[in-house]
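Postdoc handover notes: sequence design on the structure in folder B. Input tokens:
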């Protein structure tokens, strides 16, 4: 955690929070992250209007060196990775045999290594899958979370702020359009469906421009120096609550929090950034292709506005969404947003109309259309 006055850790507020280091990482010295630094709403405004530094060092980091790494990951995951050039990033999913989302990772190709950063709590599962699938491939995946930490510069001025660390000219994300159902072969270029620009940091590690700003991977022992340089350039810190509010408003789901065991990529908006619809066979591909060709996944991700009258406490993840007494979905991440009020990401049945009157527990909810 970034140690400054007013820092309040996630664990001190919710000891069962998903946003804490995995036990093995905590035992290796990975610390908790800050929920806020005393004023979470002000921190949100900073992230939406300027730039702030968010400690996300509880995320898992897997390094995959080895000459076969890109072709190997290409065959195991949903993304087109065979020719991912150095200095680029993207996203990938690992699916079950039935096409349900099991893991999500951000990908960075830099320094002769493919770096995967993933949800806290998912590192062991993702690494275990990769290790089981090594066979004779020349790859050496390993968990490097105790040695490397992820920080994020979030906000419209993130690219300017990272110049403090000696990085300039990071290009905007390059996202391919998702083709319609029953598209012609050859419609999707043979490349990653989203490209994130990546540059080496002079201090070591890398900077990757993404949807919400710029992610920084640095040696964990260098975190203090990086934070000091950025704060010395008047970049304020912001807690994870502020980051989550910005993410929810942008309708970006987190796997394991805004998904359940039945979620498929098309239901939660992950086809565009993480699934290549024309690459070769991978586990779960049949479900992805069938649902896309039908054009109607059974559920969809929505942003809910909660009235906040019956309670000012956001509902917990997994709380049922009901309509006329029947369960039609579940809530994922719920937050207090500085402009939108109490809002939540939720997965609901596709046939639920946008103007439906919904309940989340005892709280009235409406879909943001």
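Designed sequence:
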């Amino acid at each position: 955690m970034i140690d400054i006055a007013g820092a309040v850790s996630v664990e001190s507020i919710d000891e069962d929070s998903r946003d804490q280091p995995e036990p093995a990482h905590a035992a290796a010295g990975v610390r908790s992250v800050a929920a806020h630094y005393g004023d979470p709403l002000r921190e949100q405004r900073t992230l939406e209007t300027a730039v702030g530094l968010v400690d996300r060092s509880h995320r898992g980091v897997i390094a995959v060196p080895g000459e076969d790494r890109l072709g190997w990951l290409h065959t195991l995951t949903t993304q087109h990775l065979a020719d991912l050039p150095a200095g680029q990033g993207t996203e990938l999913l690992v699916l079950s045999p039935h096409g349900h989302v099991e893991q999500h990772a951000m990908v960075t190709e830099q320094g002769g290594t493919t770096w995967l950063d993933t949800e806290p709590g998912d590192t062991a599962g993702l690494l275990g899958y990769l290790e089981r699938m090594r066979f004779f491939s020349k790859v050496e995946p390993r968990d490097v979370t105790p040695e490397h930490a992820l920080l994020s510069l979030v906000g419209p001025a993130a690219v300017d702020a990272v110049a403090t660390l000696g990085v300039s000219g990071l290009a905007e994300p390059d996202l391919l359009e998702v083709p319609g159902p029953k598209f012609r072969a050859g419609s999707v270029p043979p490349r990653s469906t989203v490209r994130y620009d990546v540059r080496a940091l002079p201090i070591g590690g890398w900077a990757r421009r993404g949807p919400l700003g710029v992610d920084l991977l640095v040696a964990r022992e260098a975190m203090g120096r990086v934070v000091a340089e950025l704060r010395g350039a008047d970049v304020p810190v912001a807690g994870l609550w502020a980051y989550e509010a910005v993410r929810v408003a942008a309708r970006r789901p987190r796997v394991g929090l805004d998904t359940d065991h039945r979620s498929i990529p098309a239901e939660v908006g992950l086809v565009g950034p993480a699934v290549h619809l024309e690459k070769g066979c991978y586990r779960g591909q049949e479900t992805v292709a069938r649902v896309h060709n039908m054009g109607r996944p059974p559920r969809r991700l929505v942003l809910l506005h909660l009235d906040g009258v019956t309670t000012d406490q956001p509902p917990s993840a997994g709380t049922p969404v009901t309509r006329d007494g029947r369960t039609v979905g579940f809530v994922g991440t719920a937050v207090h947003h500085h402009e939108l009020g109490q809002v939540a990401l939720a997965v609901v049945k596709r046939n639920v109309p946008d103007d439906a009157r919904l309940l989340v527990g005892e709280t009235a909810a409406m879909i943001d259309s």
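Context for whoever picks this up: The chain has ten helices and 20 strands. Don't rerun without checking with the PI first.
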